[in-house]
Amino acid sequence: MIRKVVVFIIIAVVGFACESDNKTPENLIQKNEMALILTDMMLLEATYNTRLIRVSDKTERMLKYSEEIINHHNVTKESFDISYEYYMDHPEDFEMIMEQVFEELNKLETEASKYNEVEIETEQDKDSTIVVE
Q1: How far apart are CA 47 and CA 67, in angstroms?
Q2: Cα of 37 vs its chain's centroid, Å
Q3: Measured between alpha carbons, how far is 57 from 54 in angstroms, rounded to an integer?
Q4: How many angstroms separate the CA atoms of 38 and 66, rounded?
Q5: What confidence tens digit (pLDDT) does each residue in 36-70 have?
Q6: Burial tier of 61 (Cβ tally within 10 Å: 0-12, 13-18, 19+)
Q7: CA–CA dist 14, 100 (Å, integer)
Q8: Three-state secondary structure string covering the chain
Q9: Where are the domains of the chain?
Q10: What is the pLDDT of residues 102-112, one digit of tens each?
Q11: pTM for the whole thing?
Q12: What are the C-alpha distances in Å from 60 to residues 55, 78, 116?
């Protein structure tokens, strides 16, 4: 009898735990918006990784600007944290979000390289201009 009760309790606890993991948080940030936020965060991190900034300053600044990014997207820190945790617990959703992030970063890189090519061509045109007096 005790064995049946213990088995029932274990099944109930496991069932409850699985059920609570599948609940979607009330204030979950949609995948598209989450992708935009994470894109901005990755750009922020890349910016700081390419600059010579003291490590302690970098961490403080990253936290400050991360909060500003979250606020810029009209999201609370709490809903961002809950959403991030939710998507980390749901790898298929997180993978879809990260694919969007990388697509957006690739678009930005393509636009930047086009801008750089135009800038280089303009500089070359200036250098090759012959002045006739």
Answers
A1: 16
A2: 5
A3: 5
A4: 10
A5: 999 999 998 888 877 766 667 777 888 889 999 99
A6: middle
A7: 34
A8: CHHHHHHHHHHHHHHHHHHHHCCCCCCCCCHHHHHHHHHHHHHHHHHHHCCCCCHHHHHHHHHHHHHHHHHHCCCCHHHHHHHHHHHHHCHHHHHHHHHHHHHHHHHHHHHHHHHHHHHHHHHHHHHCCCCCC
A9: 27-110
A10: 999 999 988 88
A11: 0.68
A12: 9, 19, 32
Report the C-alpha dihedral over residues 62, 68, 69, 72, rounded to 10 degrees: -170
Whether the Cβ atoms of residue 96 and residue 31 lie closer than 8 Å to each other: yes
Contact 29, 83 (CB under 8 A): yes
Written as six digits, the tokens of 28 are 């979950």
Q: Which residue is it, tokens 């810029």?
A: 72
Sign, Cα dihedral of 13, 27, 92, 45 = negative
Residue 120 phi, psi (nearest 5): -65, -45
